[in-house]
Design a protein that fits this description.
Blueprint lengths: L1 H8 L3 H11 L11 H17 L7 H7 L5 H11 L6 E4 L6 E6 L6 E10 L3 H9 L4 H10 L4 E9 L2 E8 L7 E12 L5 E7 L14 E14 L5 E10 L6 H6 L1 H4 L1 H9 L3 H16 L7 H15 L7 E2 L7 E6 L8 E8 L3 H9 L4 H9 L2 E10 L2 E8 L8 E13 L2 E8 L12 E3 L1 E14 L2 E13 L6 H6 L1 H14 L3 H20 L6 H18 L4 E3 L7 E5 L8 E8 L3 H9 L11 E8 L4 E8 L7 E13 L2 E8 L12 E14 L7 E10 L6 H24 L8 H11 L15 H12 L1 H9 L3 H10 L17 H16 L4 H11 L1 H9 L3 H15 L4 H28 L3 H26 L4 H12 L3 H10 L12 H30 L5 H27 L1 H6 L11 H32 L1 H21 L12 H21 L12 H24 L2 H5 L5 H25 L14 H10 L4 H4 L14 H18 L6 H6 L8 H5 L3 H10 L10 H18 L3 H7 L1
Parallel strand pairs: 6-8, 15-17, 25-27
Antiparallel strand pairs: 1-2, 2-3, 3-9, 4-5, 5-6, 6-7, 7-8, 8-9, 10-11, 11-12, 12-19, 13-14, 14-15, 15-16, 16-18, 18-19, 20-21, 21-22, 22-28, 23-24, 24-25, 25-26, 26-27, 27-28
Length: about 1350
């Protein structure tokens, strides 16, 4: 009860902690402490007195203070006061903003460490945060990051004086360490805050509620919090720890970041890096606009560096492959062994003073973080004045075998009018003594200029140019240094992206262009030549539709694509069709404006408009092709005009002279395309887009390169869709937006290949999508962990999934990683993506909250899961192929056993097995005929060959796993064919084969391994098929939604699902073995008894169904076919339950829960009875079976015991509320009528129209009235289920008007007349139905006189 209340009222732990801190009184002053507290404070102050900053040692004072201290504490202080401590050594800190040090020691298990750092909040709040050691945030960190076994407050004198118990986990083979410490916070006479903590005496014990193996450890520490402003303070922590026992020194040193971790967490909890950097940058930008006084040395430095780089001609630089299309990177090779000179330039969307300030602040937090992320070791700065400073850097090259590098640079800046120049040059000053033993000194100089440009729509612009030349020293090859040029120049890219406002600039440009084009279309005048080009483009669109094209699978499942190649042509045509959530004029403006920033790609070497016009322009483009292919240049004339409810855009190659430089290897290419942009309907905000293109790349390109080029050309539509999707805010998103974002997340791009250091391609893709999407950026600010979670989802790494029950308000990075990694395992354990996402959402409460909060979340995740399943199809395919493999193996083992029985003289067994296999093949051949009877002979022959090759289960599994569409003329879907194939194999091959092999094994003179293996394969195959049938039905979200009272017994967690699936397989296999053994015993008494038993059993079952008026099956059959089909279906279901116990068939529409339980129970009773009858008869001696009576009873009881044990485990794992479904006596017709009577959703109510009418004839009048009353509404709303197949399933007298019925078309009337032959109708409705049918025929006759109307209806 208490736990449920906590979960119900749970709020954000961070917010609750902040409220608690705000309500806490200020810490007491030192003068207000009592004697005990004062002694505690003075005992810890010895650390600060001995090792604090700027304070000398004082052993005598420490001795006086600790004269009455405990033995353990005295030992620590003696250790502190001893001479066994060496000098402070810096420790690698996880954060560049927290310095950590340790003193080397002689003894094991003892360590002394200190840490210093700045926290961005008032000192008093840090103290409150620290002493509240069991806050929600602190407990989360202890549990999730440090994996502490226990942490709690043992006693509390006040909010600032308590005893804390903390059990720290240690590496494997070492016991956990128990710390029981008292911590006291107060304010000293200097105005600083102090937190003193030391161990409690040994007699103080903690009760953990259970036995815990721990070793007592102790620690004494002193934290001084010094205010440095209203919103900042400096923390200095000194701590001495005795870990107890014997722990190697290296283990303790590795634990130092964890020992000092509280200071790290304090900084992270109150971090305001971006805010502080922004304030510092604004302040520095103001200073740069003021006048400065320069010394002669500073002027010499500025002029010397500028002159040195000014002498380099621009033509000597060669272009590099820049990762950013808006940043140009170049390299001038050096002479001999001298490294080359690098240059980068970019236009930054900020004022030139802000850009220069961003660069100048070398110790800004963003600069420091980037430096350490790239291998930095140490970085410090000495400012001389506002315009000059020195910077010292130590960095690792990240290559084993190379020494670390060190550089000391002197920087200076100067502003002249609208240009700010920043220079740097290596210096030999003794500012930082060089450590020649561990570091190699680098030499470099650089020039960075910031030139103010004209604003774009009020957005300031700055041209940034950076030229740098560096000698890394040592024996690093010149090629290696030049090869790292792009990575080094990424600094310019980082500056540009920091201030990037491309989205805003492109949006304003798009709005202007849309207004211009919209105004032009009313007054546009086209020449005859222009009309000819546009008509030719329209002809391409029309001509393509009549060609026999080949479908192409795109990464984006939202679009349909195909290609067509004329015989004899070297190049192909392509076509892609999709929809865009935007107005046609906006899409046209985006297509027309080729110079938008968002349309620049990394392979664009040049892009410009040569002839600019409102509806006619010439575009030049030069693209980089993969090595060793030469670059391609395109000249294209592009035109547009209004067309229907949208626009037509046509592009044809333009004849023009090449713009390639002399000696440049460039091949002329051609690109022809036509694009039709049309509004879907008059009041719709969505437009359709049809794009036909023919890229001709010139030269001699291999076919694979042409295919890649065509795929990229087809990707233009996805670029348009992503662009307009990214402009929508989170509040405007709906289900379609979620699907669009999902498509983008699983579509690979070229940009992701240029990911950052330490970043995977999937992480880069997600990061870029979040940067480009306004809605995702809003979501990322609201939930900072969401991007990381989606990176793990898209990464799709299969691993064991963990559980986390944290609510949405308390999700952190660690939880996000757990949740994101859990989707892959859900995909594995489910057949459909809907079921996988449903399991994933149900497993993690935070995702369930997101699902309730945002309507687009589930469609997005289902689209992502579908994309992941298509790219790495190990989810449903694994189970499908496993089942197919078992079926094929079962077939071949059966064939092998037929051969074995034949050669060993067991003719009867061989004949029976052959008959079973032959029956199975014959029935499957019948399904092949039904499936392919309308297909060409070649398709029929292919399917027959697949069947007789034994590979049909595998082929059907592949078709389902790859989601292949039905071929033209096919009558059954791949899913239905797979189910039919499995059912036929189970009924006609696996079950009879298992019984035959049981008889053969019992009658044989000796049990062979091959016979047992064949029997085991048959049992496992049958168990797997029965389990997967029930499993897939239950985990489907649609069925759980429609019939929650029956579906949902399988738990939602991946581990439980795996275990319950294994139990279902074993249940089916064991039941088959039990039935096989009992049938074998009965057949050896006399085969006629087998017939008597099963015929009487089946007769009683059918009689029960007849008595309860439940014989008619739910399939929609009429007349005599209803009787024959229902009896056949009921018999097949009964046999499957008898021998495999398929859980799905306890459904009221099948056997029913009560009958299912009685059936399975009777199966085991029959096993006992038949065993007793066999050994009581004289056949036991005549048959001479391999088992004596005792062994036979042991076998039967072992199978029974195993089945009941496995079934008990199944019941323990299943959801308890579904136990009643195993005993339900509800009939099928009552359940079917419940669809209409017990549900409010129209889709579920209308299930009845596709179901056998006999099952709901008693409520037909109610169904008819409801259908008539709502038909017009459904016609207006057009729900997804209200499609043509549904309309064809509805009786004509239930459709309200003759003209509405006539809209179904002539083919429906013909089919209906045929399907209704011999059907039974309710007496009171026959006349009305006939009248309605006649009215419909008359209406169709009237409407068919109009040719246009007929064509529209068809």
């Amino acid at each position: 009860m208490l736990r449920r209340m906590q979960e119900h009222y749970e709020r954000s732990g961070r917010a609750v902690d902040a409220e608690i801190r705000a309500a806490m009184p200020p810490p007491p002053h030192k003068d207000a402490l009592d004697d005990d507290q004062l002694a505690h404070a003075e005992a810890c102050e010895v650390l600060h007195a001995s090792f604090g900053p700027g304070v000398g040692r004082s052993q005598s004072a420490a001795g006086r203070i600790l004269s009455n201290a405990s033995r353990q504490l005295q030992g620590l202080i003696n250790y502190v006061d001893s001479d066994r401590l060496k000098e402070w050594t810096k420790v690698q800190s996880p954060s560049p903003f927290v310095s950590m040090f340790t003193k080397r020691v002689v003894e094991q298990s003892r360590v002394m460490a200190k840490a210093e750092g700045v926290v961005d909040c008032p000192a008093r709040e840090v103290v409150a945060w620290w002493v509240n050691a069991c806050s929600r945030e602190s407990m989360d960190a202890s549990r999730d990051l440090e994996h502490d076994p226990a942490k709690f407050v043992l006693s509390e004198r006040s909010q600032y004086d308590n005893v804390l118990v903390n059990v720290k986990a240690m590496p494997w083979s070492l016991s956990s360490r128990e710390f029981i410490s008292r911590q006291l916070a107060y304010r000293d006479t200097a105005g600083d805050y102090v937190i003193a903590f030391k161990p409690e005496p040994a007699h103080v014990k903690a009760d953990y509620g259970s036995k815990m193996k721990v070793v007592r450890a102790s620690t004494i520490g002193h934290l001084r919090v010094t205010p440095t402003g209203d919103s900042q303070c400096r923390l200095a922590l000194i701590q001495c720890t005795d870990a107890g026992g014997t722990i190697p020194l290296k283990v303790l040193e590795a634990k130092i970041p964890q020992i000092l971790g509280m200071l790290l967490r304090a900084r992270d909890s109150f971090c305001r890096d971006e805010e502080i950097d922004a304030d510092s940058c604004a302040l520095m930008a103001d200073r740069m606009m003021s006048d400065q006084q320069y010394s002669p040395d500073e002027l010499d430095l500025l002029s010397g560096v500028k002159a040195r780089f000014a002498a380099l001609p621009a033509s000597s630089f060669k272009d590099l492959d820049s990762p950013d299309p808006l940043t140009k990177m170049q390299l001038k090779p050096g002479a001999g062994s001298v490294a080359g000179t690098l240059r980068a330039s970019a236009v930054v969307d900020a004022d030139f003073s802000s850009c220069a300030a961003w660069d100048w602040l070398k110790m800004a937090r963003h600069q420091v973080k980037a430096f350490f992320a790239s291998g930095g070791i140490e970085r410090s700065s000495i400012p001389f004045n506002d315009h000059s400073c020195a910077v010292h850097m130590q960095q690792s090259l990240g290559v084993p075998g190379f020494n670390k590098r060190e550089a000391v640079l002197r920087f200076a800046w100067r502003r002249l009018d609208n240009v700010i120049t920043v220079v740097s040059q290596s210096t030999d000053d003794d500012l930082y003594p060089s450590d020649k033993k561990d570091f190699v000194r680098m030499i470099s100089q650089s020039l960075m200029t910031f030139e103010r440009l004209a604003e774009i729509d009020g957005i300031p612009q700055t041209l940034v140019t950076w030229v740098v030349q560096a000698d890394v020293g040592g024996l690093v090859p010149k090629k290696v240094v030049d090869g790292a040029a792009v990575g080094f120049l990424r600094y310019t890219v980082r500056m540009r992206t920091t201030f990037d406002r491309s989205e805003e600039i492109d949006a304003r440009a798009g709005e202007k262009m849309a207004r211009t084009l919209d105004a032009h279309q009313a007054t546009a005048a086209y020449t005859a030549e222009e009309e000819g080009i546009l008509d030719a483009g329209l002809g391409h669109l029309t001509k393509y539709k009549v060609q026999q094209s080949t479908t192409v699978k795109l990464q984006s499942t939202k679009n349909q694509a195909s290609v067509w190649k004329k015989h004899g042509d070297a190049d192909m045509w392509g076509r892609v069709v999709g929809s865009v959530n935007a107005r046609p004029i906006d899409v046209l403006a985006f297509v027309w404006n080729v110079e938008q920033r968002c349309k620049l790609k990394v392979d664009d070497l040049e892009k410009s408009v040569e002839e600019r016009g409102v509806h006619n322009q010439v575009v030049y483009m030069k693209k980089r092709f993969p090595y060793p292919l030469d670059a391609r240049e395109f000249f294209s004339r592009v035109l547009w005009r209004p067309h229907g409810r949208g626009f037509l855009v046509v592009s044809l190659p333009e004849v023009s002279a090449s713009r390639a430089a002399e000696g440049e290897a460039v091949v002329r290419a051609r690109y022809t395309h036509a694009m039709l942009i049309s509004k879907i309907s008059a009041d719709s905000t969505v437009c359709s887009l049809e794009h036909v293109m023919r890229p001709e790349f010139g030269g001699k390109l291999p076919n694979w390169a042409k295919r890649v080029g065509m795929q990229r050309s087809m990707g233009d539509l996805l670029e348009i869709q992503s662009r307009f999707q990214g402009l929508n805010t989170l509040e405007d998103w709906d289900e379609e937006d979620g699907k669009a974002v999902g498509v983008t997340l699983v579509t690979k791009t070229e940009k992701e290949k240029r990911h950052k250091r330490g970043e995977s391609k999937s992480e880069a893709r997600v990061r870029l999508i979040f940067e480009q999407s306004k809605g995702l950026r809003q979501l990322g600010k609201r939930y900072t962990w969401f991007q990381e979670m989606m990176s793990l989802v898209v990464r799709n790494r299969l691993r064991p999934a963990s559980d986390t029950n944290v609510k949405l308000c308390n999700v952190k990075s660690k939880h996000a990683r757990t949740i994101g990694g859990g989707l892959a395992s859900a995909i594995v354990s489910n057949l459909t993506v809907e079921a996988a996402v449903d399991e994933w959402v149900a497993r993690y409460p935070a995702m369930a909250e997101l699902d309730r909060e945002y309507a687009w979340f589930r469609p997005m995740m289902e689209t992502v899961a579908q994309g992941l399943l298509d790219s790495v199809n190990w989810g449903s395919a694994m189970r499908l192929y496993t089942g197919a493999g078992l079926s094929i193996l079962d077939l071949f083992t059966d064939l092998f056993m037929i051969y074995t029985y034949t050669t060993t003289g067991q003719k009867e067994a061989a004949t029976s097995m052959a008959l079973a296999v032959g029956t199975s093949l014959l029935l499957q051949l019948l399904t092949v005929y039904i499936q392919t009877k309308k297909q060409p002979v070649s398709a029929q022959v292919k399917e027959v060959l697949i069947l007789f090759s034994g590979c049909k289960p595998g082929v059907e599994a592949y078709r389902v796993a790859s989601k292949m569409e039905m071929e033209p003329g096919a009558t059954l879907s791949a899913e239905l064919m797979l189910v039919m194939t499995r059912s036929i194999e189970m009924v006609s091959e696996s079950i009879p084969g298992a019984v035959i092999q049981c008889v053969a094994i019992l009658r044989s003179s000796g049990v062979t391994k091959r016979a047992v293996l064949s029997l085991a394969v048959s049992a496992i195959t049958t168990g797997f098929a029965s389990a997967i049938m029930s499993f897939d039905y239950d985990v489907t979200p649609q069925r759980r939604h429609d019939e929650p009272e029956f579906y949902g017994y399988i738990p939602d967690t991946g581990t439980s699902r795996m275990l319950i699936f294994l139990c279902m397989i074993l249940n089916g296999a064991l039941l088959l073995l039990a039935r096989g053994v009992s049938t074998a015993f009965l057949s050896m008494i006399g085969f006629k008894y087998v017939l008597y038993y099963y015929l009487s059993d089946m007769s009683l079952y059918l009689l029960y169904k007849i008595v309860r008026r439940d014989l008619s099956y739910w399939l929609r059959l009429e007349g005599i076919m209803n009787v024959v089909g229902s009896v056949l279906e009921r018999a097949i279901v009964k046999i499957l339950v008898d021998f495999t116990g398929v859980l799905q068939f306890r459904h009221p529409g099948e056997l029913g829960g009560g009958v299912w339980t009685a059936n399975v129970t009777f199966a085991f009773v029959a096993s006992l009875v038949t065993t007793q009858l066999f050994f009581s008869s004289d056949q036991a001696e005549k048959q001479k079976i391999v088992l004596d009576e005792v062994q036979a009873w042991r076998l039967v009881l072992a199978i029974m015991g195993a089945w009941f044990l496995v079934f008990a485990i199944f019941l323990a794992l299943a959801k308890t509320k579904y136990m009643r479904t195993f005993f339900s006596l509800r009939t099928g017709h009552a359940h079917i009528k419940g669809y209409f009577l017990d549900h409010d959703e129209d889709r579920i109510k209308m299930f009845l129209h596709g179901i056998n009418r006999r099952l709901w004839s008693s409520i037909r009048d109610d169904v008819k009235q409801y259908t008539l009353d709502n038909w017009e509404r459904w016609e207006d709303e057009k729900p997804e289920w209200f499609d043509q197949p549904f309309k064809e399933s509805v009786d004509e007298d239930m459709i309200p008007a003759a003209r509405v019925r006539a809209s179904l078309g002539r083919r429906r009337s013909t089919r209906r007349r045929r399907s209704l032959t011999g059907s039974a109708r309710v007496a009171g409705d026959e006349g009305e139905g006939a009248i309605a049918a006649r009215e419909a025929r008359e209406a169709r006759g009237v409407e068919n006189t109009d040719t246009d109307s007929k064509r529209e209806l068809e």
